[in-house]
Amino acid sequence: MTSIEKGLADVSDTMTTNALLTSLKNVRRMARNALPDQPPDFSTFISPPELIAQDIASPRSELERIFYAHKGRLIHKWTHYFEIYESHLSQYRNTTVRMLEIGVSQGGSLELWRSYLGSKATIFGVDIDAQCADRVDAPNQVRIGSQDDPEFLKRVVAEMGGVDIVLDDGSHVAEHQIASYNTLFPLLREGGLYMIEDLHTSYWRGFSGGYRRQGAGIEFIKDIVDDMHGWYHTHAARTPSKDQVGAVHMYDSLAVIEKRAQPRPRRTTSPV
Ligand SMILES: C[S@@+](CC[C@H](N)C(=O)[O-])C[C@H]1O[C@@H](n2cnc3c(N)ncnc32)[C@H](O)[C@@H]1O
Q: What pLDDT score does 248 carry?
């Protein structure tokens, strides 16, 4: 008997309306979770050479220009991310900003951030793959550990002397994204940014995702939105964000969360 059949078998003639509704909701949830939620054909997203040539000829942001001029270690990025990053990060160029990127891979993105943010920035990467320790040049730094290890993340942030920007481009597995956020958002300085890349993985089972599946990364972002509106409902906060989120910017696959302590909202009336 499948879990859905078992759920349906639980629906008996003698059930109260409430129990019946709960049972049917459970069946609906199980049916949703049973869907395959496989990634679409990834090759359809690869930018064709003629569009890459166009992007190189007419970059839509300074970050995109730097990306295509980059000659160092390998980087992969979705093309629409450049303008979004620039709109949030340009304010930090040539400042003493402290940025932590989760997910180093070949090491190229740390180099990109260095070129974009400038020599005064503190830039750290963390990765679970020990080989990443060799894919970095000072002053950038890499530390090896898992993004779901709170003590490891806390040690890295202490070493950085605090953190202004976090970019989660790590495993893209929901539990990891949530664990990192729960540790790092409280450590982020007031006015800082928390960014999570590639949230399309939230729709895929291989990343603990699934369409509207409880626990998926994008559902966690929706929890943050609910917590931001905690003034207006009586449900307990689900994330360490209540009163602390100034804005949640949700783009295609990329969330940018602004940390800004919020006073109680006030409604006003124009003078008569
Ligand atoms: C998408 S790649 C990072 C790409 C890089 N940020 C870039 O733009 O070039 C993901 C990286 O996350 C790392 N990773 C996977 N699981 C991890 C975990 N639990 N903690 C930290 N890093 C992890 C992988 O080893 C891999 O290097």
A: 98
From 76, 80, 88, 172, active-site residue: 172
**Structure-model confidence comparison of residues 148 and 21, the more confident one:** 148
Quick check: is 172 catalytic?
A: yes
Which residues does ligand 1 sit against, CB inside 6 Å?
Answer: 75-76, 101-106, 108-109, 126-129, 146-148, 169-171, 176
Query: Which of 105, 153, 197 to probe ligand 1 with, by most ligand atoms within 8 A of CB?
Result: 105
Average confidence (pLDDT) over 215-244? 95
Q: How close is the Cα of 101 to the center of ligand 1, in Å?
A: 9
- Residue that the structure tokens 């199980």 belong to: 30
* pLDDT band at residue 25 using 50, 70 and 90 as cut-offs: low
pLDDT of res. 202: 95
CB-based contact 143:116 (threshold 8 Å): no
Which among 147, 140, 264 is positioned nearest to 194, based on CA atoms? 147
Buried b (16+ CB within 10 A) or exposed e, 126-149: bbbeeebeebbeeebbbbeebbbb
Written as six digits, the tokens of 163 are 């953190």
Six-digit token string for 143? 């530390």
Q: How far is the CA of 264 from the centre of ligand 1 (A)?
A: 38
Residue that the structure tokens 């001029």 belong to: 69
Cα 270 to middle of ligand 1, angstroms:
52
82-122 per-position pLDDT tens digit: 999 999 999 999 999 999 999 999 999 999 999 999 999 99
pLDDT at 218 over 80: yes
